[in-house]
Amino acid sequence: MTSLDIISNAQELIRSRTSIRTYDSSVDVKPEVNLIRKFFNYLPSSPFSGSARFELVQLGNVNRLKKLRLGTYGFVKRAENFIIGILTEPSAHDLENIGFLFECLILFATKLNLGTVWLGGTFNRRAFSNHLKLSEGETIPIISPLGKSATKQTYRSRAIKSIAQSKTRRPWEKLFFDTTFERPLPKDVVKEYEVPLEMVRLAPSSSNSQPWRVIFSPEENKFHFYIYRRSSRSRNLFSWPDFSRIDLGIGICHFNICVEQMQLPGNWQFDVPIRPEAENMDYLISWVPR
């Protein structure tokens, strides 16, 4: 088992995945969960620094009261298995790193025909932390249930999906730009890179915010990735992680997997773009084709 298990059909997995919030707890998924546990050791390298690890929580032998305490506030129903993403120590790009790696696990779960959904603010962090007996300084920014989808999703699940507009994505011209943020990027300019960028466009994000923006600089022959920030209210008010940074990790995971699948040579660099950052845009990283 290697990371090629997800690279081989990355586009299909990205296009086919959907968020599942109601699960069929009667279906045994232990074989698939065991494969995911093994896959922890074969995750591809992330372009970001950061120290993260992953755990699987299986609730089959957990009593009902403890299950309730390990709550997801009604956003997920009848989930018996969870992937837990754990930051082991802070660093400059720790959230981008865990977003990148966690998305690899989600895509592998999708390959195994398991349902998943990213959870950032709608689970009991303290209860999960106590259940796993985390070391001092370790935190849980994200989790996802794992399992087979129930035949019928609850009304609340359908309503949440509708509110999140998870099937809606911003158009290409609002996300990708040529040289400056004032000029949309024509697809024929980037040629074979249209597909990796489209996979970034389709990536999931918190509240479907799609905070990634990419400038292609023909002068430098580089793709510069930025975070677009509308507000920092949620993480300041609720002490949540900066979900925009996790989202960028997800989008860059999609781009990275696709350039590997398509054998497009290049490398990631932390660069200084030749033009200054625009308002509400924070530069993150650049892809340099070879």
N- and C-termini, Cα separation: 28 Å
Range of helix content = 25-40%
> Radius of gyration, rounded?
19 Å
Residue stretches low in confidence (pLDDT < 50, at least 5 long) are 232-237
Question: Largest beta sheet, briefly?
Answer: 5 strands, mixed
State the helix count: 11
pLDDT averaged over residues: 88
Shape from CA axes?
A: globular
> Could you state the order of secondary-structure elements as H and E?
HHHEHEHHEHEHHEEHHEE
Number of strands: 8
Strand order of the largest sheet: 4-5-6-8-7
The share of residues in extended strands comes to 15-25%
Main structural class: alpha+beta
Descriptive account of the structure:
With 290 residues, the chain is an alpha+beta fold. It has eleven helices and eight strands. It has helices at residues 4-7, 10-16, 30-39, 64-69, 94-111, 125-132, 155-164, 187-190, 194-201, 233-238, 243-261, and strands spanning 51-58, 81-89, 139-146, 176-178, 212-217, 222-228, 266-269, 281-289. It has a five-stranded mixed sheet with strand order 4-5-6-8-7. Strands 1-2-3 form a three-stranded antiparallel sheet, with helices on both faces. A hairpin with a 4-residue loop joins strand 5 (212-217) and strand 6. Helix 2 packs across helix 5 (94-111), helix 5 packs across helix 11 (243-261) and helix 9 runs antiparallel to helix 11. The radius of gyration is 19 Å and the shape is globular. It starts with a helix and ends with a strand. The relative contact order is 0.16. Residues 232-237 have low confidence and may be disordered.
